[in-house]
TrEMBL record, chains A, B, C:
A single cellular component GO annotation: plasma membrane
Protein name: Membrane protein
Organism: Rubrobacter xylanophilus
Entry keywords, A to Z: Cell membrane, Membrane, Transmembrane, Transmembrane helix
Record family assignment: Belongs to the UPF0126 family.
Amino acid sequence: MLPDAHGSPLMLVLDLTGTFAFGLSGGLAGVRARLDLYGVLVLAAVVGLAGGIIRDILLGALPPATFSDWRYLAVAALAGLTTFFFHRTIERFYRPVAVFDAAGLSLFCVTGAAKALEFNVGAVQAVLLGVITATGGGMLRDVLVREIPTVLRSELYAVPALIGASITVASSRLGYDPTAASLLAAAACFIVRLASLHFDIGLPTPPDGRGKPGE
Amino acid sequence: MLPDAHGSPLMLVLDLTGTFAFGLSGGLAGVRARLDLYGVLVLAAVVGLAGGIIRDILLGALPPATFSDWRYLAVAALAGLTTFFFHRTIERFYRPVAVFDAAGLSLFCVTGAAKALEFNVGAVQAVLLGVITATGGGMLRDVLVREIPTVLRSELYAVPALIGASITVASSRLGYDPTAASLLAAAACFIVRLASLHFDIGLPTPPDGRGKPGE
Amino acid sequence: MLPDAHGSPLMLVLDLTGTFAFGLSGGLAGVRARLDLYGVLVLAAVVGLAGGIIRDILLGALPPATFSDWRYLAVAALAGLTTFFFHRTIERFYRPVAVFDAAGLSLFCVTGAAKALEFNVGAVQAVLLGVITATGGGMLRDVLVREIPTVLRSELYAVPALIGASITVASSRLGYDPTAASLLAAAACFIVRLASLHFDIGLPTPPDGRGKPGE
């Protein structure tokens, strides 16, 4: 039997679901950037797996779970193949990339923070690792297709992840039931993310920050 | 005496040759992007060393062999200096970047997979690490000079590496002679890569994937 | 009491000061690229912390000191908030990004090399780790805002870091007083960096390297 990467079956299921959701979002980005089959698979894998890999590198938990456990690789590959062959069907749904991405974000901020807590890092570090796990894959995706990462520019993207990771860490410290807390935290992140998209809410830009060029 | 990074003298020779070949390819890319001396050296080092560094980070084999063993650094620096001073001579040959790059690809997919096997990861992971070792440096090079990585877009680039790494892993599982298997695997990758360039063979792009924009 | 990340209080002070200086430089770059609050904070953190994180990953010193020690995170966040709210005031000074960046460069090449020496790597590797610590954050910053890293293209940027790191390693080998040597090394780097900016000195580009395109 394979060891559960995150200690509990619930975390594993959330993590694999997040990998698939992010994998779809990455694969679709690859299709749009007109990459070939390999490129689409790599983008699916990068978005689905890189956040967790960065987290495990920072925790010193090497080799990373998402790399040594074949189920993550299989799920990411499946997501890539799905977008490669069925991207037209997927895109018929309402804002598919955004919704899958929000799902991945919500699941990874929870599982990332939960794994960090198992490694006994501080509360602030656990929250940050949740955010890094959730946003790392998407940032790498944007760098690879040569865009300034969306998460840095606009929209509430990191904030929902921050909320989800904070709920996870706080409930763990308060001794609440992890299953209920994880689902609540993921739901909170998901709702805030979709609401921010729907109502077009963003973070403030710098006061007077029209970015006067010149040193 | 320095320890051999990959357990056998053959692997070390292949690895250093691959570092030099990739270093030339990186240095030439730096010359073309009009970088200065430091930039050319860094690009040579990135393409020559980064694949192996990423592999060793993922394996938890820290510090990375390509960093702690001075011979890798020396070979990468030598490749960078060679391209800096003699790029005009080098470019007189037929498609020099492509040929050096194919050589590096062929050698690294073999040594990357072989090193992964020594760390007792699964067969799929060993093949993947071979591909990552072979293609990681080139991807980073493209990101640094601000291009969408070629490997994601067109041509058979990862596929030859996949073939070479798979032959390496399969022969090891079947107990074949590692020296013969390594050379065969590298030759197979090299031939497929150059043939794909010559006949302009690529991977399929997504069906109907003209990349309709819009969410 | 928290452990000192670099063994000595002097190193810690230099390291935190460097983090703040680089954080200001990163935050200002974020303001100019019109990122939002989160983007400005991330850029400040990336430039302030990433060099040290890359160094610690390469040394296998995980989790990285700059991540597990909350003071680094707090200082980087403070630098980000400072640039977000007060960027107009800061930019009134003469070339603020360049000066803060030079300060970060000077401090990190010293602390990076000093930490590497504690891990008993070779002298060349210690110098290189000093340069990587000093220049890694800025390279990542340029990649994120989609520019070819300045350090690769023009100006004396890595050379001053090389000088500072070399002085640090050489004095340590010669048994000189580390406090005096560190301050001297940082000052040398700082002066060379600012002088190169003032007199517009750069590294040579490749001979005839007008970058003839075409393979």
